[in-house]
Amino acid sequence: HTALCVGRLALDLTCTIPMASMTTTLGYTAGVQIEAKVSATNAIATSTPSLPSTDLVVAQTIPTGVVTALAATSTTTSITVTWTGLVTDTEKGFSPITQHVVTIDTSPAVTKTIVVAEGLTATFTGLTTGTSYTITVAAANKHGTSASVGTVTYIAASVPSTPVAPVISQVGTDVIISWTPIATSNGLSIDSYKVLFTDGNLTPAYIENTTLCDASNVLTTSCTIPMTTITATLGYAANTPLTAQLVAQNVRGDSPPSVTSNADIVAQVAPPTGPANFVAVSTAGDVTLTWTAFTDNTQTGYSDVTDFKLTYSSTSNPLTEILITDRTATTYVIPNLTPAGETFTYTLLAVNIHGDGVASTTTEVLAGTAPTTLTAPTIAESGTDIVITWAATLDNNGADVTSYVVYVKDQTNASSFDDHTALCVGRLALDLTCTIPMATITTTLGYAAGVQIEAEVSATNAIATSTPSLPSTDLVVAQTIPTGVVTALAATSTTTSI
After folding, report:
1. CB neighbours of residue 462 within 10 Å
2. What is the pTM of this model?
C-alpha cells in the first residue's frame, strides 16, 4: 500500500498514511493493532519483505460513546451543565479526548457553542428567564467530534424570589394567617407555599407545621388556628407576639423566607387572676358585693373582659349563678336573700372571649332585720262582714315573713290601733286578708254605727315585726240593725183585708 503514503518520494524512509485510510480503505476496526513490512528495490530485483512491525499502535476513530450523567442548574439568566466524560478506549475511539463541544439552541435555527478543553462543565449566560433550552454535549479527540451527543432540556430559572410577608389578624378566638399568592417567580410557576412558625419560646428557628397551617395547595391563601392551639400546642405565653414567615416553592426549591409578619397580635388566654379586693357586705337581706377593676392586660389575659360571673350559695340556698353583663362593673347588689344569720359563699370571675377566668371567693354571714313596712290595707264590706286586705311585703329584709299582724282602731281603748289579729275569722298566718264580722266591730271594738272603721297591718319574720303600715282610708263605717221606728202609720180595709 505504498500508494497510500501521502507525499512520499521514492527514497524517503518514511510513509505517512492518514488514520482514516486505515479504518476505511484498509478496513481496520478501532483498537486493532496496525502492522507493516517494508522491502527495498534496485535495478535487479526487490528484496524479501522485512519482518512485521511490533509497535503497539492501534487503529483510531472519532469518539463513539455518549457522555453520561448530563445535568443542569440555572439562574434566571444562565444555565450550567455538567456531565461525566467517556471512560473506555472503545468509547473514546482509542484516542484521548481533547475537548467537549457544548451547544445550546438559543432560538429557532440559532445555536451557540462552547468548546470545553478542560473540565466537565459549561455555562451559558445571557439567557431569557423562563425559557426552555436544549443543550447537547459531544466528546472530541484528534480525529474529530463524536456524532453521538448527550442531551438535556432545562429552563433558565431559579427558586422563587422572597415572597411578601404574611399578615396575621384575629377574628374572635381564631388567629388568621393570610398571604397574597403569585403565579410565577424567577421563570417558573409557584407550586406551593410554606408557613413557618416558632414555638412559644421563639426556639427553634421558624419551622413549618402543616398540622396547623398547610399551605401546600397553591390555591390556599390563608389558614385559621384557634388561639387555644397557639397557647397549648405551640406553647405561647400570654402577650407573646404571634409571628410567621412565608416561603414560596417551585420545582427548583424553596425561596428565602419572607420577612417576619406583623407582630401586633399577641397570645391571649382567659383571665388568669380573679378580681382583687372582692368583699361582701349585707344589710337587711341585701348583699352588696364590691371588687377592684382590672388595671392592666396581665389580669385580663390580654383580651377585653366581656362579662362577670357571680355565684352565691349557703346551707339553705343551692348554687346560683348571675351573669353581670356590665364589663366595667365593680359592684353588684343581690336583694332579698334569706335566711339571715346563715353564712353565704360568693365567687366572682371575669370572662373574655377565651373563656372563664380564675374565680375570687369571699364569705359573709347574712345580716337581716324586720320586713319592710307594708302599704296601707284596704277595707271593704262583704255581707255582714268587713274584709281587710293588704299586699305582701316588698322586702323581707333577710328572713322570710312568718305571719302578719292586723291592727284595728279600738273604740274601747282611746281609739288606739291594737292587735286584733285574733278577731280574723278562719285566717292562716300568711293569708293576706282578714275577715271580721260587723257585729264584732260594734260590740267587741265598741264602734258606734256610722263610725269609720280603720286598720293597719305589719309583717313579722324571724328577726322582728315591721312598723305598722299607715291606716286604711276606705270609707267603710260600722253598721247595726236599724234603730229607728217607722212613722205616719195608717190603714184602710175591705171586708176581708186591711
Report:
1. 16
2. 0.72
